[in-house]
Inverse folding.
């Protein structure tokens, strides 16, 4: 485990206007993310933080976030809120600081419709709150169900098996669930296996996307490919920089899987 820089800070605002479809505002209770996913587009946030550490090696805790959310809900009157867009609201230190849980209590009081996206089964800790919302959905990100792949690209996340079990537990408690399948890594992401597993836990919806190359995420992925999957070293530059035909076929394949497993699916990449 690399050395981690943990800081507490006071935020000026906590509800940020969202550009994501179907989401009015977004809450990021932390700055940075301890999952350290190599493909993560959110690493672009580093340039706004003053941190010199690698992405995944720092976390700023917005210690006053619960106070801010109470004030800003009354002022901004959001119709929908997402947790989170450039961090994981259930990163490992959420166990200790419970910033996300505190904010959920306030959002619940106002019955604000919420959507959560995470890679941590810690979200099940808050089922007692989540099942009281009239409008809530909880999603998990997956790019592979293979523990070897996860270790190579996102070593500090909950295992895929734990995420699948968390989805099952959420559904058993009447909470709407979804999955974000991405980034799809060619010849690594086993989409058939993912769809089959998600079908078994009755996930409500699936989003599928390819790699977002913000902050040169492709370069980080290619470095891992070269070291861990050398047989793909020459294939990846072609796929990601030239071969639209590959992604056209992938779209067709995803649609076939969606029909086969009867899962509502939205493909985000063009």
């Amino acid at each position: 485990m690399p050395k981690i820089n943990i800081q507490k800070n006071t935020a000026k605002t906590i509800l940020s206007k969202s550009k994501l479809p179907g989401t009015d505002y977004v809450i990021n209770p932390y700055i940075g993310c301890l999952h350290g996913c190599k493909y993560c587009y959110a690493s672009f946030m580093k340039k706004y933080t003053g941190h010199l550490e690698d992405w995944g090696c720092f976390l700023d805790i917005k210690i006053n976030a619960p106070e801010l959310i109470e004030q800003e809900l009354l002022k901004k009157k959001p119709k929908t809120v997402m947790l989170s867009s450039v961090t994981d609201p259930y990163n490992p230190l959420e166990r200790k600081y419970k910033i996300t849980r505190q904010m959920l209590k306030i959002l619940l009081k106002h019955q604000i419709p919420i959507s959560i996206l995470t890679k941590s089964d810690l979200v099940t800790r808050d089922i007692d709150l989540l099942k009281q919302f009239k409008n809530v959905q909880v999603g998990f990100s997956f790019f592979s169900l293979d523990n070897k792949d996860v270790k190579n690209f996102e070593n500090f996340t909950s295992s895929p098996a734990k995420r699948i079990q968390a989805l099952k537990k959420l559904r058993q408690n009447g909470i709407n669930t979804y999955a974000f399948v991405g980034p799809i890594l060619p010849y690594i992401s086993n989409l058939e296996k993912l769809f089959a597993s998600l079908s078994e836990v009755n996930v409500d919806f699936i989003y599928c996307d390819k790699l977002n190359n913000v902050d040169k995420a492709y370069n980080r992925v290619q470095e891992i490919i070269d070291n861990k999957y050398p047989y793909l070293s020459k294939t990846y530059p072609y796929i990601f920089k030239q071969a639209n035909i590959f992604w056209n076929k992938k779209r067709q394949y995803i649609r076939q899987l969606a029909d086969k497993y009867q899962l509502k699916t939205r493909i985000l990449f063009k």
Q: What stands out?
A: The longest strand covers residues 136-142. The chain has a mean pLDDT of 93. The chain is about 35% helix and 15% strand.
